């Protein structure tokens, strides 16, 4: 797969569908693993909040285990379990300082993508 100078992927419609039906999902997972290695801002979820996040829900303060210091609002973050397993990525809805004073049901991270998407979209692949 090559990339155009405009930043958009090249047309892969020439690849026969019988070759690999899961090609787009594999590319997504490869790109996600590179993103996890580059992003410095991280959020860790409590075990009770992991499944909610993996079902596509946003992260609320009551499910937040830790957050990187000085995380600004509306910045990309990688979401980890407390055992440092990457679960997905999203946008911080609040800064670190705002998280300290908010209500337990306030949204801390806006869900963008997670490792559970493959299972939810398996029929569409």
Query: Uncertain segments of ≥5 residues (pLDDT<50)?
Result: 1-27
Mean pLDDT: 77
CA-to-CA gap between the ends? 19 Å
Strand segment tally: 6
Shape: globular
Structural class category: alpha+beta
Question: What is the tally of helical segments?
Answer: 4
Largest sheet: 6 strands, mixed
Binned, the helix content reads: 25-40%
Strand proportion, as a percent range, falls in 15-25%
Indicate the radius of gyration in whole angstroms: 17 Å
Order of helices and strands: HEHEEEEHEH
Strand order of the largest sheet: 2-6-5-4-1-3
Could you walk me through the main structural features you see in this protein, from its secondary elements to its overall organization?
This protein is α+β, with helices and mostly antiparallel strands and 125 residues long. It contains four helices and six strands. The protein has helices at residues 23-38, 47-54, 96-100, 117-120, and strands at 42-45, 59-60, 64-67, 76-81, 86-92, 107-114. A six-stranded mixed beta sheet has the order 2-6-5-4-1-3. A hairpin with a 4-residue loop joins strand 4 and strand 5 (86-92). The longest helix has 16 residues, at 23-38.
């Amino acid at each position: 797969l090559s990339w155009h100078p405009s930043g958009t992927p090249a047309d892969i419609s020439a690849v026969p569908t019988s070759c690999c039906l899961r090609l787009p999902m594999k590319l997504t997972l490869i790109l996600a693993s590179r993103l996890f290695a580059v992003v410095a801002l991280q959020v860790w979820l409590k075990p009770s909040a992991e499944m909610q996040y993996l079902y596509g829900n946003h992260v609320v303060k009551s499910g937040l285990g830790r957050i990187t210091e000085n995380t600004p609002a509306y910045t990309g973050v990688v979401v980890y379990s407390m055992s440092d397993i990457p679960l997905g990525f999203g946008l911080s809805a609040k800064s670190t300082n705002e998280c300290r004073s908010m209500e337990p049901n306030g949204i801390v991270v806006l869900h963008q993508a997670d490792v559970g998407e493959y299972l939810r979209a398996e029929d569409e692949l």
